[in-house]
Design goal:
Blueprint: E1 37-39, E2 51-56, E3 61-67, E4 76-78, E5 84-90, E6 96-103, E7 108-114, E8 124-127, E9 132-134, E10 140-144, H1 151-156, E11 158-162, E12 167-174, E13 180-186, E14 195-200, E15 218-224, E16 228-233, E17 238-243, E18 246-252, E19 267-270, E20 273-281, E21 292-300, E22 307-310, E23 328-330, H2 332-341, E24 347-351, H3 372-376, E25 386-387
Amino acid sequence: MLAGTALMAAALTACGGGSGGSGDGKAEPKKKSDMAITVNLTGDQAKPGEPVKVSLAEGKLSLVKVSDGKGGELPGKIADDGRTWASERNASPGTDYKVEAQNTDSQSASAQFKTAAADKVNKVTINPGKGSTVGVAQPVSIVFDNPVKNKADVEKHLKVTTSNNTEGSWGWFKDYTGNDRVDWRPKDYWKSGTDVKVEMNLNGVDSGQGGGMFVKDYSTDFKIGKDRRLQVDLDAKKMTVTEDGQAVKTIPVSAGTPGGKKASWSGKMVLMTKEGTIRMDSQTVGLGDSYDKMVDYSMRLTWSGMYIHAAPWNEANFGRANASSGCVGMSDANAKALFAMAQVGDVVEVTGDGSKGKADIGNGYGEWNLSWDEWKAKSALSGAPQNG
């Protein structure tokens, strides 16, 4: 039976007088008919991406259930006047729904509808991954497959919950790939031991023109590990590693050659991945045929190719001169030890003269180079902070 039409069962009437049919003038009470409801979505090609709304012609609603046949339900609320109910989530594309309603007189009604399939589907890539332990600078990062025009509406469906009410905010910008991206960054670096849960209730949300609709929810959870920070001083040609504010290791390094494309990026970065032994080819980063070699203990800082890694071929310059092609190199022994202790999400801050400036915000995790007010301004919701 389709919604959008009054669903009224036939009234049951009194069917006889007293015993023996003598008709003593006392009619039996009239039984109440089932109630009538109207649903805003009807048929088998109903428009997805909007809330389900149920209206009652007379009386007051006591219960409304909208289920999808797969065990899922759309949560919702009955209005104060009891006459209408609206779902808090949108109807998802390509889904069969059943509406069941009951009023305060225990009368009931039901309806069914099916939403049309999405013309285009948007998907996301999420970091950090579920169950991971990361450093104190790691943001929540969501990259979208397709453009997101409805940024404010999408952001409203994203929620970060933390074990210690960490203050933070979402910010929108372009990823290094050119795709739309939204990150959640705390006001200050995370506190060690914080548990973080991210809920992306995107099923049924429309990305806007050219982006398509989301057809599922996403989630991730992670924990903040040790407070470890890697501080690279280009002037002193050394890296200082601190844990919980205490220096635990000082490493002679050789960073990027000052001036030109081979200089290192500076500013606050985040250790993105620990990739180990990888092939580094200068032609892939626009440096001609300068090098093409296998490199050990590689840890990525930017998408454009800045790493911390072992560089035994540059040993003469460790602690003496910045002479690499942009990466921070060190001895095999120091690189091995650092690789063993470092974790994805650790702070990496490069200071001193001779850099080529700060990397673009989407070239890795560059949000820590912005002030808190600058970061909040990147929220599609007027920069309002979201406490976890």
